[in-house]
Amino acid sequence: MAEFKKNISLKDYSNYRIGGPAEYFFESRTVEETRAALEKWREIFNGDQSKIFILGGGTNILFRDQGFAGLVLKISINFISPSLSGEAEVRIGAGTPMAEVVAFSEKRGWSGLEWAAGLPGRVGGAIYGNAGAFGREIKDSVLEVESLDIFEPDKIIRRTDKDRCFNYRSSVFKENNREIILQARFKFEPSSLSSVAREIKKNINYRKERQPLEYPSAGSVFKNVDLKKVPEKYKKMFSAVIKTDPFPVLPAAFLISEAGLKGLRRGGAMLSAKHTNFIVNAGGATAFDVLSLIDLIKKEIRQKFDIELEEEIKVV
Question: Is 266 a catalytic residue?
Fold first, then answer.
């Protein structure tokens, strides 16, 4: 039987360094531990889905100040297992840091995840939110995902149809919100050590130069705006900044900057002047501060451009 910890501060499990206590907390390192934790959760909370939250690396999460009344189940299944066939295929645990996966591929000169260089978080979270950058997404490299349903944990679910698994910054796992990602099989393209290393270094430097990494944050707060949802006059007005990500989008950071919101603050939360799609914890920020700033930004963009921004971060 899994032994839950009680009243654990969620600040320590969030890149934001924000959040109240979890009523119960358990870190699972195996499938068996995950199943045991689910069994105990069902006993305590009678299978109430609102009383469980599945946590990965905490890099795209804003925990509320009051914390979480229920079980926070952190998945730390960490492994990288290359294919025995010699092909550029790897099975990777959901709790494996993306940085370790990128480093693994770099050492072998395998291409496919260079875009993720410098990306925080874990593999499971990247799959859950279909993370992406520089016109690429995690789904481009995923061959198969294994998960289990919190209500049927004895059964392993295997998905191979990426077209049905993933959407823009989303996935079937995010949409049904009842499965725990356990591991995934990735496919790489054999390349050269020098070219992969060069691309990885370029992307890391890009992030260092353009993102406020000196502050705690949850990365990009808002999704870039699908061009189909942009009024025609702004499509023409802002045509020079439209990018493919992986389809035509208008960057949220550009809209926020155009609205003159750089450096805006609410309490300890600040809209970065370096990257205006980052709300950072500039010191002592609360979830209330961050949420107040999010609401204000959405209101300003709606009024100025008739565009509705959609959050990329998850509020718990």
Answer: no
